[in-house]
Amino acid sequence: MENLSEILTFLPAVITALAGLIILLMSVYRTGINTIFGVTVVALTAGLAVSISDMFGPAGTSFYDMIAYGGVAAFGSFLVMAGSLFCVLISKDYLEDIGLHLGEVYAMILFASTGMLALAVSNNLIMVFIGLETMSICLYVLAGLLKEEKTGAESALKYFLLGAFSTGFLLYGIALIYGATGSTSYPEIAASADTSVLFLGGVALLLVGFLFKVSAVPFHMWTPDVYQGTPTTLTAYFATASKAATFVALILILSRMMPEVEGIEWQKMLSFIAIITMILGNLIALVQDNLKRMLAYSSIAHAGYLLVGLAAGTPEGYAGVLYYLFAYLLMNIGAFGVIAYYERNHALDFTNVNNYAGLGFKQPVMGILLSIFLFSLAGIPPLVGFLGKYYVFAAAVNAGMVGLAVIGVLASAASVYYYLRVMVFLYFREPHREFQLFKPSLLYRSSLIVLSVLTVYYGIEPILPSTSLVELLASFHSALGSAVATP
What we know:
Shape: globular
Radius of gyration: 21 Å
Order of helices and strands: HHHEEHHHHHHHHHHHHHHHH
């Protein structure tokens, strides 16, 4: 009975892992791909429902304190499940169009989601390594699906080599931390930590491994090539679900493992990395004509904004990061989804912004949806992206890091140029030549509309009579405060 109760605390990952195995068997026996797609959607929906339920349940640890459940961990599971589900929903038509609508692709997505869930609920460095590597190996495979194209093969190889290199840093950091403290459990590490070179070196190497996964400067070089060479709807998966899992794991590490020891000033290091990440990501995005590379550098800049909340080092900052991850998931999947729709119209190369001239009037709904997502990414009110930036910058100000918040606001203001540039082409430029865009399927269109409605709704929610998400955010303040207080 006790084993069953522990399994229930990890139920979303159990669901996705079992569904992945079932889909592999279904592929062997040549089950119809639409049935496989249906099983994937049902599994992810069930995992999402369980994650939402866990957010309002008790919090604690299980499996000999290897994983956490409830509170922040449950919200991390919710982000992974929601990101995976929406990416699968918009992938069906796109994968059919490029000839990659295969059962194995959905199995890899489910196994990658299992690794992300393990990472997001980790309470032990061994669990971090297992989750990170399970996720990464599946993502390497997905990055190389377009193996017939040069960019696809290059992106997969670069991602694999640099990913393996970063894994070496991560594993060596875990070994050093274990050598310094005699444990891999977050609370026990916090209780035994000191300012020895062994411990500080281990923490530094551990953070290098994480900063690579979130595309922070100077560990960002793989991001634009991988985003460009990966099928677009799967790029959305890379940019949202995996980033959400990694940032949630970082929050748990910083709040539960990093002790308040004099001489450990990791907030200053994170502040410096946040600054160069925000500045460099936005500066290079300004000159990109390829939309997928532009969104790649944009995602680097957004990683910098998220690091601002982590640098604050307060429950308010961590809660702001969680909210921002939710906002980023909605608007980024939506933006990649609209670009994937245009890509499927083979009249022109629709990864190039110059070919978007006049498209806003050919399919008005898709033009409006892309405008909503880009406005939100730019942080323009009253959309959810504005609130996400407000929460992380406000946390930095309240933590006494006014300069960091000011740099973040200025960097965000600079990003408006390259987001609005796309809309200038959509509505204020004449088309290169006449062609007809096809009508997207009901499933595809509905998924993007739901994302856009959520992007608008959660942008205005604080001024509505019922503010459920804001109240939930306040509960995360309390939960994280407890996490910090009881290492």
